[in-house]
Design goal:
This protein has three domains: 112 residues, Nuclear Transport Factor 2, Chain: A; 74 residues, no CATH class; 93 residues, no CATH class. It is 30% helix and 26% strand. It contains nine helices and 18 strands. It has a five-stranded antiparallel sheet. Helix 1 crosses helix 8.
């Protein structure tokens, strides 16, 4: 589960936010979308951490897209970046959801599928792919579209094409075309991310191990390293059938930063302040400089 530690950090630092959500319920969809886009505390999460209601909407309305990035705005909701796998293959779009998973409407009357100015890349044909149990080979985009349409008319189901790898894609135009070989869905996601210039990993800090959590059933989970934490958290939630609650970190806990320094925090409030002081996007650093209210930086 990629960036699991960062997700749990968010859970702890926004514990107090749920008690102050009434004013957000009065915001229009357009206002919520703009707030999500501009939130400096937004960061990346795993697809499995997107609300089930949102995943259902994506599966129904964007069945022919690949989710290559999911982000959460702690106070406002989710921003999902999708790459078109079919009719406009290589194109990118973004959709937005409220914190409860509800899909938000379009921005300023624009189509809900907010497209970017340029297609990210082009597929190199022929392409072999499957839709359900049926295999196809397309020699150009028109055949690709025809296959998608014919399959839908025959089955009545919307399906995302599953490519037979390796495939090739092309970036650029004219004399500046670059051909890249793609060997998996993961590499295809990376290709979409490269179009957006998203080489940076937004991970700001990790826990200093060992670290402990009080789980929803009252037991205490202790992990010795990141892999151990991911495995134990995954095992717990696979078998847990009780009321859905947040795990709670056992304080004090050490935070380890990318520059090698560390910070001991003693409460959710101090963890939230650590996030504000150290993990805001570039360009907002000056706002939080010197504002730390808790913890000991070493």
């Amino acid at each position: 589960m990629r960036k699991l530690l960062l997700i749990f950090t968010l859970i702890f630092m926004i514990t107090s936010c749920d008690d102050n959500m009434s004013y957000k319920q009065e915001m229009s969809d357009t206002q919520l979308i703009e707030a999500i886009i501009s939130d400096p505390n937004k960061f990346e999460i795993d697809e499995v951490d997107v609300p089930s209601m949102s995943l259902y909407a994506i599966g129904e309305e964007y069945y022919d897209y690949m989710m290559y990035k999911a982000e959460i705005s702690p106070e406002y909701g989710y921003q999902i970046s999708l790459g078109d796998m079919a009719l406009d293959a290589g194109d990118m779009t973004e959709i937005f959801f409220a914190k409860d998973g509800r899909k938000l409407g379009g921005r300023d009357g624009m189509e809900e599928r907010k497209r970017h100015d340029k297609r990210c890349f082009k597929f190199v044909f022929p392409l072999t792919f499957s839709l359900g149990e049926t295999s196809y080979t397309a020699n150009d985009y028109q055949e690709f579209r025809d296959a998608m349409k014919a399959n839908y008319e025959e089955t009545g189901e919307k399906q995302k094409p599953e490519f037979v790898f390796p495939i090739q894609i092309q970036f650029g135009r004219g004399d500046e075309v670059e051909t890249v070989t793609i060997n998996s869905d993961d590499e295809l996601k990376e290709a979409f991310q490269a179009c957006r210039g998203e080489e940076d990993d937004k991970k700001c800090f990790t826990f200093g191990f060992p670290v402990s959590f009080t789980m929803p059933d009252g037991t205490v989970l202790t992990a010795e390293d990141e892999k151990d934490l991911e495995e134990k958290m995954g095992a717990f939630y696979e078998s847990y059938t009780g009321e859905k609650k947040r795990p709670e970190v056992v304080f004090p806990v050490d935070l380890m930063f990318e520059d090698g320094s560390s910070l001991t925090v003693n409460s959710p409030e101090e963890m939230k302040q650590a996030w504000i002081d150290n993990c805001r996007k570039r360009g907002n650093d000056d706002e939080s400089e010197g504002e730390s209210e808790g913890g000991t930086r070493g």
